[in-house]
Amino acid sequence: MTVAIAGAAESDLGVTGASVLALHAQAITRALDDAGLALRDVDGVATTGVSRFSATQLADYLGVRPSWTDSTFAGGSAFEMFVARAAQAIDAGQCRTVLIAFASNQRSARSRSLGGAADPHTPEAIFESPYAPLYPISYYAMAAQRYLHAYKADREQIAEVAVAAREWALRNPKAFRYGAGPLTAGDVLDAPMISTPLTSADCCLVTDGGGAVVLTSLERARDLRRPPVVVLGYGESTTNTSMTSADDLLRPGSFDSGRRAFAMAGLGPSDVDVTEVYDSFTITVLLTLEGLGFCPPGEAAGFVAGGRTRPGGAFPLNTNGGGLSYCHPGQYGLLLLVEAVRQLRGECGDRQVRGAEVALAHGTGGILSSHATVLLGADR
Q1: Which of 20, 31, 112, 137 has a CA between 20 and 30 Å from the CA of residue 264?
Q2: Concatenated DSSP letters of 52-68
Q3: 334 contacts 340 by C-beta, under 8 angstroms
């Protein structure tokens, strides 16, 4: 059975003052309305981050009793993983309509805490904690430092990722940095240094916000309110908890998740019209582009140069402004899917990629730890 995304929406974004469940409710009701469905139609729920019993609590809050749930906690990649699980569940007849949702009020709450007490017996606690790294930026900074050294890249080339993201955000009225003005490579390099070589401008935002998508069979979606977006393929890879067990800082799991997704879809990188990848930090984007096969290892810094990923460039990337300039509520992977759906439905106004037929959404979780790739297509 072919599965499609029938509805997609955001909650309020930025600084909302709302509770986590209230933001969930906003995103969910808007996504269901987008699809022309109601809560009574939902029999599958996937979410993470509400509590340790995320799907249970959200289903209870919504007043639904699903026949299928998933609360996989894998960081920012969880939502691309949920698309795979939901497609499999719908295909197996476990459920008919799956709601995938996430929301966080971390900026209003002034907190980024997602875990409990640390276990003193883990390799990270033994070999890394004594050096007091800043979590997670110091780990990504290690990868960036390694990238600069191994590939002889320029620091300005990494900064281009943030510059391009800002250009897209200036075309998105919902972006946190909308109206903030353009960013230059010099601005990125001159921003406060957080963990060498990454400055504050290399880091994602801290905002409130969330989103939701609704999946069902393609046959059913064609009778609903909005044009369906077809799930073409997906793949995932889990590599490490932290840097202690990473074999190679320059070879993240996107090499494997992307290969698997493209194989399932019967497509290749050249078939993708618009790309949405997790940009927790600027270096995350370069490593992911190489892993997904858009360019060979060591060439992403040159690949993004010359405005290639900016509006009007040959490679539309993170077209809503990304986690760097649009929104980042702690786990950003769901909003990658929302933007990919909107691009394929032609709804993005000034930032619309003309003729977009295939979109890729790639989530990264933890310390380059979990990776999930989803390929989506317009239903023509």
Answers
A1: 31
A2: TTHHHHHHHHHT---SE
A3: no
Q: What is the DSSP string of 339-353?
A: HHHHHHTT--GGG--
- Taking the model in full, what pTM does it have? 0.96
Q: Are 283 and 198 in contact (CB under 8 A)?
A: yes
Per-residue confidence in pLDDT tens, the chain, 380 aa: 799 999 999 999 999 999 999 999 999 999 999 999 999 999 999 999 777 669 999 999 999 999 999 999 999 999 999 999 999 999 999 999 999 999 999 998 876 554 445 577 777 788 888 888 888 999 999 999 999 999 999 999 999 999 999 999 999 999 999 999 999 999 999 999 999 999 999 999 999 999 999 999 999 999 999 999 999 999 999 999 888 888 899 999 999 999 999 999 999 999 999 999 999 999 999 999 999 999 999 999 999 999 999 999 999 999 999 999 999 999 999 999 999 999 999 999 999 999 999 999 999 999 999 999 999 999 98
* Residues acting as catalytic residues: 278, 326
Give 233's strand partners. 375
Distance of CA 70 to the CA centre of its chain: 18
**Residue type at 349 in one-letter notation:** G
Long-range contacts, 15-19 (Cβ 8 Å, 24+): 15/107, 15/108, 15/207, 15/208, 16/105, 16/108, 16/208, 16/209, 17/105, 17/108, 18/105, 18/108, 18/208, 19/105
Q: In sequence order, what are the residues at sequence separation of 6 or more whose Cβ sits closer than 8 angstroms to the Cβ of residue 174? A: 10, 13, 320, 326, 327
CA distances from 259 to 253, 284, 371 (A): 10, 18, 12
- Going from the N-terminus, what domains does the chain have, and what CATH number goes with each? 3-112+208-232 (3.40.47.10), 134-205+234-378 (3.40.47.10)
The answer to whether 66 touches 41, Cβ cutoff 8 Å, is no
| Residue 139 to residue 243: CA distance in whole angstroms | 7
